[in-house]
């Protein structure tokens, strides 16, 4: 905060608050705010009815509950005091911010992520093991998908999505964040919403799913995996050829994800393979995103991000090929950059599984 010239940090709804305090604000109109002055003690301003859920952390922050008839913005403004520069959590609601701007007219506001993101994006050993546990849990679900233990033929995308979600919970997650199931031509839309499309023999199915595993300290870590299967006896030649390119591109980006490599070079390593095979215009998104307490966070593996990877960065590698009206495919693992090289947290098979169930 001192380096960035920030006098006070304000964290509310969003992942910064649980990351730093172990307490997740209810996404309610009643405001919760952790006020962290650069010099001085932190205070958690919280609705009185939520206060019983807060685990007190002595020496970290004190609790200031507000009752239904009090003015919480006034309480927060008094704690902000004469601060000239306040950094607010990126996911704080605009309504809270607008009220704070009126209540503290002398302060200028900026994003808190310039301070919180460099901390959050470097995972320590404990965090990496928690990400690994979440990844291994979804690996087990993916292995059952590949092994034909999750029925596909005759089921709707929505049914399979719900089934993947149940299994993600059964494997130890506390929440399902998404379970994309896209059959045939639907997979050409990277974030297709699973619906009543019935899965048939003779088509590819893309499954991209993940959730959050919350620890005893109240902090949750995310998983995120994509695997594709072919339903029926024999994959179409064109699908197989594209998949071979995708698999090669995925491997190239993973191998490139070493400490010191600019993030954009990791994107380029895989994209080059896809371009050279003639599918360049069908890879329509960045290669990956950071992951931790949020499913998407820094660092982003994208052209233009010249920041070198540092040991402890955790991110997805997820190239895709999307042929409108025909088919789509993506292959996604979570990888950690370490001094010993890229550490893939997902280890379930990368090949196109053929499923006849
Ligand atoms: Zn994903
Ligand atoms: Zn992802
Ligand atoms: Zn592979």
Structure characteristics:
single chain, 357 residues, alpha+beta, Creatine Amidinohydrolase, Chain A, domain 1, Creatine Amidinohydrolase, 2 domains, five-stranded mixed sheet, 18 strands, binds zinc ion
Concise structural overview:
The chain has 357 residues and is α+β, with helices and mostly antiparallel strands. Helices cover 29% and strands 26% of the residues. It contains eight helices and 18 strands.
Mean pLDDT, all residues: 96
* Secondary structural class: alpha+beta
Going by CATH, the homologous superfamily of the largest domain would be Creatinase/methionine aminopeptidase superfamily
CATH class of the largest domain: Alpha Beta
Shape: elongated
CATH topology of the largest domain: Creatine Amidinohydrolase
Q: Portion of residues in helices?
A: 25-40%
